[in-house]
Prior knowledge:
The protein is 67% helix and 0% strand. The two termini are 38 Å apart. The protein has a domain at 41-116 and 183-303: MetI-like fold. It is built from 17 helices and no strands.
Amino acid sequence: MKKKKAKFTKAKFEITVMASLGVIFLVVFAYLPMFGLVLAFKDGDHVLNISRAIFASDWVGFDNFRQFLYDKDFLNVLVNTIGLNLLQLAINFPAPILFALLLNEVQNGKCKKAIQAFTYLPHFLSWVSFAGIVFALVNMDTGIVNAALLKLGLVKEAVDFKGDPAYFWGMIVLTSLLKGIGWGSIIYLAALAGVDPTLYEAATMDGANRLHKAIHISIPSIAPTIVLFFIMQLSSLLNNGTEQILAFQTQSNLDRSEVIDTFVLKYGIRKNMYSYASAVGFFKSAISLLLISVSNFVCKKITGQGVIY
């Protein structure tokens, strides 16, 4: 007996259209622009007509890549990029996990919602606005931070947090933490909400305290989520938040603030060096692909969990 074919109902049509919009978005904004990577292997710098730069410029092979690798700023840019990301990986990655675990222990519903609302708010501020608030707080003449440090005797004179390169990395890490800890904890709170309550009840009957429950129940239960985001974080080791870096970057701290993303932006947009900037971007993407493959392989071997199966 032949099975009847499922009818293509109105509901299925609507779902198909919605899914198709996502596919179209990916094709237009993710896959089609990849054709522009051919610029990395051509001499299309300073050609105002992009289509002419792609199709009519001379083929130069890996010359643009060699130019970047031998650039006098290459080592400094690479150190700034990796150094900042390693610091954020060590500090900012575990912070939302710890915050979610602590917030999960809050029993008072109103208090919990108030904390969530307060910590989520910075995420919705643009980096320009957030940087403006930070600069006002650390201002050498009127900022409350310098006033407090001087009052407590921790410094002898006002500190130039904005212009001194020595403080740039610390400001980036701290502001990223303040802006993202609340929002970053949402996914972990959602994972914790799915943990079977009977596990906690059984642990309580066995005499386990809150710390024991967090270590032996909560963390293992959300381990797949942690591994997933850890792999994604590792794959982004050469990616920095361009908006954040540009908001805090000044001419005086350029030695510590220039990263690959800002380097590409300046050469590609301001100097019209399309081929050179494309080569740098291609280099970064290739390293990111390698990192996500290696980190996924290692995590699967150690924990049995990964992004790519």
